[in-house]
Structures are given as structure tokens and as C-alpha cells.
Design a protein that fits this description.
By secondary structure, the chain is an all-alpha fold. Helix content is 70%, strand content 1%. It folds into four domains: 207 residues, Alpha Horseshoe (Serine Threonine Protein Phosphatase 5, Tetratricopeptide repeat); 98 residues, Serine Threonine Protein Phosphatase 5, Tetratricopeptide repeat (Alpha Horseshoe); 61 residues; 57 residues, no CATH class.
Length: 471
């Protein structure tokens, strides 16, 4: 495989396509449109409510609905039908992005007008299912099922009923369903919803991993393990780590499996092992530079995480080293901006404490690592910091630091003649000081630098000639 860890959208699209090919005892997921769902790794999302009712169904009260769940006796351009369509589309969109409360409000607005609307009731059930409120989900799916013979709604009702029994009972049922080809899709759906509510449920996650591997879907198995790394509490990590190590052993020639293993080691602080795994991943991906770049980005992120921890704990020298390590592995605009801000803040503290050369070093680092997308406001803040440093250094008769600070401000705003003149004058003043100390060669270099900015300035030229006469 190219990469074990897929994006959320890639994973959902693949799962939906794969599970649609599995047999089912009831046809419960036939026609399901996944791909854009946010509800669990298996991609069983809200789209089904507007496209899976493949035949006419009857609802209580005698109203007949067509394949899209609309009353067939009513003109679709009627005010009520337009309202219903808009509300259900809104519920679908909100459910996709995880706004269960908003989705529920939209669906309930339909139920207030027609309490027998099966699809609206099913939408409300889905919101409660996503939130892990299985009793309420059961109540609404029961209500929806009473007005529809949709296999999907029946499947959702079974899912809510099973999950309401608790995670242990649900896991036992998931295992049973995944063992039988005719019920595997339903088992995968239940597992997906259980993981929505309990993303750190390692046992359920491993069952899904085993299931995908049996289907020959190594990428999906790896994606589940990748999701589990961040979601699993450290105290439950041992079982997950053993499964990831087994996954790596089974696919030891796959760079993605080492990338996955490295991230697991980082999660529990085994940084030496993580570096070894990342190195193996990089070596195995040498024929695929795009993939290697992704692995390096993963590797670099681990050092950013550690840098943040060091910064929080006040270990600033260590944080600086870790940020630099990350950028050496894989440079990106986001990390550069974060590191630049870190150095700027550090420089401000050093300046306040009178540590002028340390402040200069920090400001220079902040400037060097500013990303190309840096805002004008941040550039202006750094220029002002350099100018404050130049003023303090002048008060302390530290003329070399004055020159360096003026240079930093000028480089950030080279079109500003005031800054250009300030830098040239700083060189000239420093040169005069060196001349008075008898360092004529040093003075000559400073006067020469001043002349580079203003070639016709008579004072700079005269000072240069005076120093030159002493050599």
C-alpha cells in the first residue's frame, strides 16, 4: 500500500464502497451513501435518509410516501413540502459536520408539522445515536420504524437497541455479527457508532482492525489504528501497542506500518524507539518521495509536540532545540510561524531583563524563521522590538549591538530610508568608537559599511579616509 493512514474522507469513502459489496440478511445498508459522514470510521452517515427508501412506504395516518420519503399525494412545490425539504437538507448538513443539536432542531421542526414523518424521526434518532444517548435513539427509531418499512431504519433501531445494553454487551454482539458474512455490515455499523461515543474503546477498535484485515483492506486497518493512537488513554495503551506492533510485523516491508508504529511510540514517550521506526519508514519510502515527505512531516510533528511541552514547563533551551530539530526534518509554514513567535516572546523577555545580546539572538531567530505568509503586523512588531533593542544598547554604549539591531529592523523594511540612515549612522558611530580605541582596521570596516548605504555622504567618506591613513 502507498500509505497505511488515510484521511478521514478517504477512509469513509473506501469503507462505504467496501461494505456495500458485502452480503446482508436484510438489505439493511443497501444504497447507503457514505463518504461525507462524520459519524464513525465506517462512514454510515446521514445521506441515507434522503436516498435509501427505494420503494413506497406507508406511514400511520394513511399518508403514502415515495422513494424519497415525500407524501406522494402532495405537490412537491407546496409550501409545506418546500419547508420539509429545506429542513431535512439542513439536518443532513449539520449532522455531517457534527452539530447534532442543530440537526435535531431542524428535524424536529418537521415533526412539529407532521408527527408521522418517518425520515425526520430517523434523523432525530441519528443525532441521539451520535451523542451516545441510545435510549432516546431507540425511541425515535421505533417511532420512525412504525411509519416506514425501510430496512435502514430497522437496522438503526437494532443498532441503538444493542448499544443501549452497554459497551461489553455491544462488543460481544459486534464480534458475533462480524463473524457472519451476512451480518458483517451491521456489525461494522454498530462498531462505528460505539467508537463515536467511546473513541478510546480499544477492544472494539481492534475488532474492526481484524475485520478489515480479513477483508484484505490493510489501509483501513491501519487507519483505524492511527485513529486509536490519539483517542486511547495511556493506561489502556498496552493492548493497542501490541496490536500496532503486530501490524508492523505483518507488514514489515511497508513504510506506512513503521510510520504508524513510530507515532504510537511517540504517544507514550518512547522517543528513541520512535526515531528508529521513523528512520525505517523513511528508508522504505525512498522510491516514493511524496510519501516520504508525509512521513517526514509526521516525524517533524513529534518534535513540535515535545517542544510545546518543554515550553510549557519552562525549558526554553530544550524547546528551541526541539523546534529546530522539527524544522530540520521537515520545514513548513505553520511550524516556522510557531517557532518565530516563540523566539520573539523569548527576545522580549531578554530585552526586558537587560540581556541585550540574548535578545538580539532571539529576535534574529524570529526574523529568520518568519514564514513567507507572515502578516505585516508581526513584521511591524519585530521592527519595533529591534528599535527598542537599539535604543537600550545605545544607552549601554554597546555599539555593536546597536548596529546589529538596526540591521535587523532595516532587513525587515529595506525600503524605509529612515531605517537605512539609522543603520548607516550606527556603523559610522561604531567606527568612530573603534578608531578612538586604536582599532583602525575595525573602524575602516564600519565606515566602509556606512558608505555602502550612502556612497556620496561626505562624513562617511572623510571618516573612511582618516582610518585608512592610519594603516
Amino acid at each position: 500500500m502507498r500509505r497505511s493512514v488515510l484521511s478521514g474522507r478517504e477512509k469513509k469513502l473506501m469503507i462505504s464502497a467496501i461494505t456495500s459489496l458485502l452480503p446482508t440478511s436484510s438489505g439493511g445498508l443497501s444504497g447507503l451513501s457514505g463518504g461525507s459522514s462524520t459519524l464513525g470510521a465506517s462512514g454510515f452517515g446521514p445521506d441515507f435518509l434522503l436516498n435509501v427508501l427505494g420503494r413506497r412506504t406507508s406511514v400511520s395516518g394513511g399518508t403514502a410516501y415515495d422513494a424519497n420519503g415525500r407524501p406522494i399525494t402532495e405537490n412537491e412545490n407546496s409550501e409545506r413540502m418546500k419547508f420539509r425539504k429545506q429542513a431535512l437538507e439542513s439536518a443532513k448538513t449539520l449532522l455531517k459536520v457534527g452539530d447534532t443539536a442543530g440537526a435535531r432542531e431542524a428535524a424536529e421542526s418537521v415533526l412539529k408539522r407532521d408527527s408521522s414523518d418517518a425520515i425526520a424521526a430517523a434523523y432525530v434518532g441519528r443525532t441521539y445515536l451520535a451523542e451516545g444517548n441510545y435510549d432516546e435513539a431507540k425511541r425515535y427509531f421505533t417511532r420512525a420504524a412504525s411509519g416506514s418499512d425501510s430496512d435502514q431504519i430497522q437496522a438503526d433501531l437494532r443498532t441503538a437497541t444493542i448499544l443501549a445494553k452497554g459497551p461489553d454487551a455491544a462488543l460481544a454482539e459486534i464480534k458475533r455479527l462480524l463473524r457472519q458474512p451476512a451480518t458483517q455490515r451491521e456489525g461494522a455499523q454498530i462498531a462505528a457508532y460505539l467508537l463515536d461515543a467511546e473513541p478510546g474503546n480499544v477492544d472494539t477498535r481492534i475488532e474492526l482492525v481484524n475485520f478489515y484485515e480479513k477483508l484484505g483492506q490493510k489501509a483501513l486497518a491501519g487507519a483505524e489504528l492511527s485513529d486509536a493512537i490519539a483517542a486511547t488513554p495511556v493506561e489502556k495503551f498496552d493492548a493497542l501497542l501490541r496490536r500496532i506492533e503486530q501490524f508492523n510485523a505483518d507488514y514489515s516491508q511497508d513504510a506506512g506500518s513503521f510510520d504508524l508504529l513510530a507515532q504510537a511510540y511517540v504517544r507514550i514517550g518512547r522517543l528513541g524507539d520512535a526515531q528508529d521506526a521513523f528512520s525505517s519508514a523513511i528508508a522504505l519510502s525512498k522510491e516514493n518521495l511524496e510519501f516520504q515527505g508525509q512521513i517526514k512531516a509526521d516525524y517533524a510533528k513529534t518534535f513540535v509536540t515535545l517542544a510545546r511541552e518543554a515550553k510549557t514547563e519552562g525549558r526554553e533551551d530544550e524547546a528551541r532545540r526541539l523546534y529546530r530539530k522539527s524544522l530540520d526534518i521537515s520545514s513548513n509554514e505553520t511550524t516556522k510561524a510557531e517557532y518565530s513567535d516563540f523566539e520573539f516572546e523569548r527576545g522580549e523577555r531578554d530585552l526586558q531583563a537587560g540581556r541585550l545580546r540574548l535578545a538580539l539572538e532571539a529576535f534574529d531567530n524570529a526574523r529568520a524563521y518568519q514564514p513567507g505568509s507572515v502578516s505585516e503586523e508581526k513584521k511591524a512588531d519585530l521592527i519595533k522590538a529591534y528599535e527598542r533593542l537599539a535604543t537600550k544598547a545605545g544607552d549601554a554604549a554597546d555599539l555593536k549591538t546597536v548596529v546589529d539591531a538596526r540591521y535587523g529592523a532595516f532587513i525587515l523594511d529595506p525600503g524605509n530610508d529612515t531605517r537605512k540612515r539609522g543603520l548607516a549612522n550606527a556603523h559610522d558611530t561604531y567606527g568612530l568608537s573603534l578608531y578612538d580605541q586604536g582599532d583602525y582596521r575595525g573602524a575602516l570596516r564600519q565606515f566602509h559599511s556606512a558608505i555602502q548605504y550612502y556612497t556620496t555622504d561626505p562624513n562617511y567618506a572623510a571618516h573612511y579616509a582618516l582610518a585608512q591613513s592610519r594603516l
